[in-house]
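User: Hey, quick favor. My workstation is busy. Could you predict this chain's structure for me?
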Amino acid sequence: MSLASCLVFPDFTPRPHLVVAAAAPHEKLVARAAERLGAPVPCEEWTVRDLAEHMMTWTPVLAGSGRRTPPAAGTPKAEGDWVATLDAGRDDMVAVWSDPSAWEGTTTMTASELPASMVGTMVLCELVLHAWDLSRGLGEKVTWDDAVLAEMLEAMQQMAPLGRGSAFGDEVPVPDDAALLDRVVAVAGRDPAWRP
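Assistant: No problem, here it is.
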């Protein structure tokens, strides 16, 4: 019996149109990350290196999941020409999940069968949150259009409760009039005011 048949998941809205926009800041941030691998990031006790290696691990898994053939997660290191490796992997993942067909039916990540729209939403959340994480660790500014962030807030409000205590921390309170990006990261358990 599959995990998907045992658990009830929300009906995630397919959002292939957001994938390119969500990924847009990454190329610049990852290039900058190569110069600051030891800098802290908002993920507890992680550095830029840890975050880069996390992205290098899961980017090919998420891309493969969109194709219905995810590889086993590896243990890549931020060594050698890792920036080019991560950039190529991200471009592949973005291309896969920008195709509406990737969001249909079910797929797998490692051994678990999941709704494809849920995995696609994970992709969006990873792209936005990790760009924000990098931007804070590197002291860079990151922005997305409000239209993108409004949809991301809805997606995060669906996704975050499923991963509390693992992928996401407890929601951080923010004012009702907080900026959209602050609300997105707060739902994910990040403190929008975090600084190194």
